[in-house]
C-alpha cells in the first residue's frame, strides 16, 4: 500500500515541473526511483540514504547540546527539523555543515561514515548550507556574492583573473531559472529583500552542485508573502533532485513542503515522522505540547489574525505545488 | 509562435534608469576625487607657484610617502581591520636594515632583505594574534604600536649607542640600493623621485588585485561579513593575515626609501603617521566598518594630503595651520562621501 502511495505521489510532484527522471539520471549512480523501489518505511528502511544520522550527539564541555538524534535525507525529499529556540537545531546543522563535529553516533553520507572538518569539506561532499542571516555579504554585488569562494577565473599564474562577464551571465541565468525576478546583478545584495536574498543563496547552492541543501530558518524573518516565495523555492530545489533539510520553528511552513519531520526539544529528538503518519494538527501539538498549545491557540484566537496568516501561506503553497493543504 | 518571443526585457518598475553620472557617483572614490579637484583649483588660485611642474613633482613626492602606505592600509580597511602599528613599523624596517648592515658590516642588500622579512613578520604576527584571539584589531595593533615604539628606541641605543642610526653611506651596496629606493628621474627637466613611480605601480597592481582577482573578492567579503565569507569557503584567516602582511610590505618599501633618501634613521620617528594613512584611506572612500572602498581612493586621499601639505607652504601661510586644514579636509571628505553614496544608492 505504501509503495502505491509513493508512486502516485511521485508523478504528481514531478509531472508539472518536468524535472523528473531526467534530472535524477544526471546525478550519481543511485537515483530516486531505485532508492524508493523497495521502500517499506522511509524512516528506517531504505537501501542507502543521501545522508544519514544515527544517534548523533554533541556536547560543549559539560553542556549537552544534542543527543540521540536520528534522521535521514534523500534526494528529492524534504526533511524538516522542527523545534523551539534552544532545541538543538543550530547544533544539528552545524554538524552537518561541517562547522562543528559530533561526539557521539554516526553520520553517513552516501552510506559512508564521515566527520566533516570544515564548511569547505562539507561543500566538497555536496552539502551546502544557507543560513538565515549570514547567507550573503550585503555590500557586495549579487554576482560577486553568487560566486564568492568559488570564483571562475581565466589566465594562469600571476595573471589569473576573474572571468567577470561569464560570472555575470551565469548569475543572471541561474537566478532566472529559479524564477527570480532580477533587477541588476551589479546591485549590492543588501538592497534585495530578505526573501530574494535567501533565493540568491539557494540558487548559488544549486548551481555549485549541492546534493543536499540545508536551509536554516529561511522563513523566520520574512513576511507571509515572502515566506510563501521561499517555500516555493524549496519545492523547486526538491524537484531538481536535491535532498533538502528545512529547519524551522513553524509547523505551518514545514508541513506543506516536508516529507519527513524530525522534532527536537531541549537537544533531544521527541519524534521522527513520515508525512503519511502525522497531520498538521498533531505536528503542531507535538511541538508545543498539548495543554500549552490549547492555551496558546485560545490566546491567539482572542488576539485575532493568526488564522488568516496561516490560510494565506497555505494558499500560496497550494498554488505552486498543486497539493491541497490539510 | 509568438509566445516564444520574449517580451523586451521590460525595465522593472523598481529600477529607475540609472544614468552614467549616477553610476559614476556610486564609486567609492568619487567624493575624494571631487575634493581633490576643488583643492587643486583652490591652491592654483591662491598660490600660482603651485602650478609649476617642479612644485607639482614635489607635491606628488609628498603624496607618495603617504600614498605607498595608504594603499596597504586601504586594502586592510576594506578587509575590515585597522593597523595602528603601521607608522612605527616603517621605522622598524628602516632601522633593521641600517643597524644590521652596520653592526655586521655586511652588504646593505642583506640588511634590506632582512628588513623585508621583519616587516612581513610584523604583519603576520599582527594578523595571527588577531585571528587567534578574536580581539579587535584596534587593541592588538595598539599593543604592537607601543611595543615597536619601545623596541625602536631601545635597540637603536643599545646597538648604535645613539637615538639615530650610524651612517651607512659608505657601505657596500648603498649606491645600488639608493638607486632603487631613492632615485631622482629627470623627465623633461622635472625632477621626479622614485617613490612616486613605486606608488603608482602599487596602486595599479592593488586595484587590479582588488577588482579582478579571487583574492580581491575575498578581501571585500571578509570585510563585509567575515562569517558569511567563511561559510562559503573563503579562507578568512589567511586573507586577513595576508592583508596585514601587505601593510608590512608597504612599510618595508617606505622604510627603505626613508633610509636611502638619507643614510641614517631617527629611531623616534613614525609615531602618528599611522593616522595619516588611515585618514588618506577614509578620505578616499573606505568605510571604517570594512567591505567598501578602493585602492585608487586611498591614492587620491594621499594626494589630497600632499596638496594640502605643500600647498600651504606655496601659499606662504604659516604651516601651523596644516593640522587644522587636515582635520577639516577629513570631515568634509567623509561628509561628501556620505552624501554622494546616499544619493547614488537612492537613485
UniProtKB/TrEMBL annotation, chain B:
<keyword id="KW-0762">Sugar transport</keyword>
<keyword id="KW-0813">Transport</keyword>
<comment type="function">
    <text>Part of the binding-protein-dependent transport system for D-xylose. Probably responsible for the translocation of the substrate across the membrane.</text>
</comment>
<dbReference type="Pfam" id="PF02653">
    <property type="entry name" value="BPD_transp_2"/>
</dbReference>
<feature type="transmembrane region" description="Helical">
    <location>
        <begin position="58"/>
        <end position="78"/>
    </location>
</feature>
<feature type="transmembrane region" description="Helical">
    <location>
        <begin position="196"/>
        <end position="221"/>
    </location>
</feature>
<keyword id="KW-1003">Cell membrane</keyword>
<feature type="transmembrane region" description="Helical">
    <location>
        <begin position="241"/>
        <end position="263"/>
    </location>
</feature>
<feature type="transmembrane region" description="Helical">
    <location>
        <begin position="275"/>
        <end position="305"/>
    </location>
</feature>
<keyword id="KW-0812">Transmembrane</keyword>
<dbReference type="GO" id="GO:0005886">
    <property type="term" value="C:plasma membrane"/>
</dbReference>
<dbReference type="GO" id="GO:0022857">
    <property type="term" value="F:transmembrane transporter activity"/>
</dbReference>
<dbReference type="InterPro" id="IPR001851">
    <property type="entry name" value="ABC_transp_permease"/>
</dbReference>
<keyword id="KW-0472">Membrane</keyword>
<feature type="transmembrane region" description="Helical">
    <location>
        <begin position="135"/>
        <end position="155"/>
    </location>
</feature>
<feature type="transmembrane region" description="Helical">
    <location>
        <begin position="108"/>
        <end position="129"/>
    </location>
</feature>
<protein>
    <recommendedName>
        <fullName>Xylose transport system permease protein XylH</fullName>
    </recommendedName>
</protein>
<feature type="transmembrane region" description="Helical">
    <location>
        <begin position="30"/>
        <end position="51"/>
    </location>
</feature>
<keyword id="KW-0997">Cell inner membrane</keyword>
<keyword id="KW-1133">Transmembrane helix</keyword>
<feature type="transmembrane region" description="Helical">
    <location>
        <begin position="321"/>
        <end position="340"/>
    </location>
</feature>
